[in-house]
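Risk register update: the risk that structure generation would not scale has been downgraded. Supporting records follow, first protein first.
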Amino acid sequence: MQLSQHFSLEELTFSQVAARTGIDNTPSDEVVANLTRLCNLLLEPARAMLEVPVHVDSGYRSTVVNAAVGGARDSAHMSGRAADTVFLGIPLEEAFDKLRASDLPFDQIIFECRAWIHLAIAPEGVQPRREALTATGHAGAWHYQPA
């Protein structure tokens, strides 16, 4: 199922942890609606703005998958409002700087471990915070700083 021109439901729900352990990572209809909003509000516009393909490392995570990967207890991934991304063909720091300076309606953008960019939208009807952070550390022990 396509969520937008370049992003599929399969891509936004795939989890290596779920595949390896047999955890069900099937989203609800509400989560699919949020994933669709995420693709249309952030992922597609970011792809167009940077003019490069986007690889999604982690999109939706069920509560069980989120716990298994050491995600935050209130992670936007669990409601389908976040994706950890890698922009192919552009240095990640450059992509991060361009995205956070843009007028894209992100709730949160985090440059994590200099290895991926977390992009999140606000819940429906809530004004995006436009919070830009950098993160270092590892699952269960992240350290966040304003960018």
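Supporting record for the second protein:
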Amino acid sequence: MSSNTLEIIQGLAQAAANAWDGGHDERFALDGTARKVGLKREEGCPIMDKRVNDGFAVRFSGNLMCITYQSDIKLKEAADPKFEQECERMLNEVKKFLQKEYKAVTGKGITLSKQGDPTLNVINVSRVRSFVKVHQYYKISGIDSDPILEPSRASENDVVKKFLEQHTTKRPRNVTYKKGANQK
């Protein structure tokens, strides 16, 4: 991994870490800077209002970054025809935040290009509540790496063949019982 790739991944990881729960309110931030991502949990007072469980995570694979957004929703929200657009909007808000925060952390800009369509999973928790999980892959502009290749099977087969070739019917020197003594 090149040092440029490592710097980009560390910058994006730090940008994601700066979105911790409570970082949207300058009263709770250590540096006094409010960082609003656009999540539902940022609305209202975190101490007095009913909390909305939503958040995001990032993971890296080669030159791709996967943003996963998750939230607790009501079943009637999932039945809304514009629900999928709302989930895509939330992913876009997270992407914009990461790009803005990456620039603040590193001083450099970064481009995240959408790869394919988002994957949306809605799981019923009860007759009223549901859980939604959406993930989308983005290509990171500054990383030039080959796609992840399938592992080589030939080397694994060679190791197994070499091990099996070591088999012999000759008894080891430390065996002291007579041949056939342990059989009835």
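The radius of gyration is 26 Å. On this basis the risk owner (M.S.) recommends closing the item.
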